[in-house]
Fold this protein.
Amino acid sequence: MSGHSKWSTIKRKKEAADSKRGALFTKLAKELQLAAKAGGPDSDTNFKLRLAVQRAKAANMPNDNISRAIAKATGGSDSEQLQEVSYEGYGPGGTAILVTAVTDNRNRTVAAIRHEFTRVGGNLGENGSVAWQFEPRGALSVSLGDSDEDEVVLAAIEAGAEDVETSGNSVEVQTSPGDLETVRQLLVEAGYTVEHADLSMVPTATVSLEKGPAAQALQLLDGLEELEDVQRVYSNADFDEELLAQYA
């Protein structure tokens, strides 16, 4: 499994381990509000809201919190001020980084993101400066459990997966964005546990970093992830296995 894909897997596990933090629930509530406001409060007909609800439940967010966030969005109030914005920049070693955020104050958000870039020698770029290096994909993580690895991989391919990699006790699956929910449903119906399903931005090519820049890049990615307004962070860095083991 590539160092880039492994970083994404480790990042999700770290997030799950930190799921009791109020900051994570705040981020999830913003995501729920934005999705509900854009497509309505019914997750059966609102695909983005369904993904947001699944993500919130995976982080052990209480059902009452989920319901309140959706109700706040559909009832007006301060949810109307939330905006989804994206930022692009370069980190250590020329790493391309794409950041998505949900905010009610763009000035606050961009200042915080710029600070994280500059403290490790990176810099924010113009819109379009690095986005062309990424493509939208559906991303799923399927637990192997007691199942045979080859059977899970074959089931994912038959369900419509376009790329499959094994990582520890899970299988990482990529799909076209439009096939994400179909592949998820087919795998669940086949009896497999889908631990994670989300829309993602995947680099078309990765950059290998030396130890020093790689450590700085991880510091930057972690710093960005911890910002309250930031929802997703994507990079094209391909990290060394030994460094990732220390990071994990």
